[in-house]
Amino acid sequence: MSSPGAEDQRKAQADFYAGLEQLYLLPNWAREAESQVAHGPHAAAVPWLWKWSEVRPNILRTVSLVTPEDVERRAIGLINPRLRELGRRGATPTLTAAVQLIMPGEVAVSHHHTPAALRVIMEGKGAYTAVDGERCWMEPGDLILTPAWTFHDHKHEGEGPMIWLDGLDVPLIRSIDSNFFERYPGQRQQALTQPDGASTRRFASAGLRPAAFKWDKPYSPLTRYPWERTEQALQAMIEKEATPFDDLYLEYVNPLTGAAVMPSMGCYAQRLRPGVQTRSHRHNASAVYYVCRGSGYTTIEGKRFEWCQGDVLALPGWHWHAHANGSTTEDAYLISFTDEPLLKYLGIFREQSGE
Ligand SMILES: [Fe+2]
Ligand SMILES: [Fe+2]
Fold first, then answer.
1. Which ligand is nearest to the CA of 282?
2. Which ligand is nearest to the CA of 300?
3. Which one of 29, 67, 142, 312 is separated from 37 by 20 to 30 angstroms, measured CA to CA?
4. Residue 63 in 3-state DSSP?
5. Distance 124 CA to ligand 2 centre (A)
């Protein structure tokens, strides 16, 4: 039982808090929920796997339901269950992922926005994304950047559905209340001011750059990273230089500086050799993985997520994880995007290796 003195003290505190509340003031020690997370991130997101076998039929169904004309983009978001409970959207607390489709003859009109975006091509051929006056023809496994405030539109001139994975930093930009959006003025598609595939031609070979090329933007001048080159580079890697946590692991970088492709999002490609099981580690960067080829599983905080081609996996920050290739004869390839560059810029990136 508490003493009368303690009772008076509690009442005085409660009166004091009530008085402060009227003035929109709050004592910092009264913010219980936040003090609980002082020793590490709290679970704003859960690990989650979206199966291609479930996503694909649903994105195909949208063809008869909506057009890009109706809805700007025919895209379905991959929503983390925990974030949805919290009334938020996204695959992780900083990253959104969505599957987008265009059909032959369709155009997704030109616009730009302050959230940065990237595409990983999942299926199809004969469509392009135009970015900053350059057409990038898309093929499965390609990475295409549409950095913050660059105009981008999509058009399909081939046959069959064209499907890709969009990755954006929307939750981050919303949290700093800086979400701007604008249509390209006066026309559905932007003016083409560069030859097709210009940036991919400029940086055709690692270690060589056009001597007179000038660039002062905070993102990579290479817009399309063709899968063909990425796969060749992964194949050519020196096996002794495999990393314990990701096996043969390449970062997509700005070819002029070696920095991450965009300030808020970085991208990686990895080859898990047959039978490989990586060691576990954790980092406060969150990531979204796309299974480009092969099958295997990722163990996150002791739970096994079995994946195969086309699946998408959300890894929240500060969760122990390890990857395994389920095949003893075939390589498995993952492409991932992450908020790691942002955390490194802020000087708060943390990583820990497991047993
Ligand atoms: Fe967009
Ligand atoms: Fe990792």
1. 2
2. 2
3. 312
4. helix
5. 29
